[in-house]
Amino acid sequence: MSEQIVDRWLRRFVATAVAGDLAGHMAMISPDVMVFGVPGFDTPSYADW
């Protein structure tokens, strides 16, 4: 079941990005997110996206 939840989330995540639905795409990301290991950035935050 967990795999199905992740699969649905990833499909929607990709679909919003491909459709250019920035509001829908960003609504799927927590404002508290921090991404590590992105070349050229120390630690991108939600605002950096």
Your description of this structure?
There is one protein chain. The protein is mainly alpha-helical. It contains two helices and no strands. It has helices spanning 2-18, 22-26.
Notable characteristics:
45% helix, globular, 49 residues, mainly alpha
Structure described in brief:
This protein is mostly helical and 49 residues long.
Question: How many strand segments?
Answer: 0
How would you sum up the global shape?
globular
Largest sheet features: none
Portion in helices:
40-55%
Radius of gyration from the alpha-carbon trace, in angstroms = 12 Å
Strand content: under 5%
- What is the structural class? mainly alpha
Low-confidence stretches: none
- The helix/strand series, from N terminus to C terminus, equals HH
Question: Layout of helices and strands, plus pairs?
Answer:
Blueprint: H1 2-18, H2 22-26
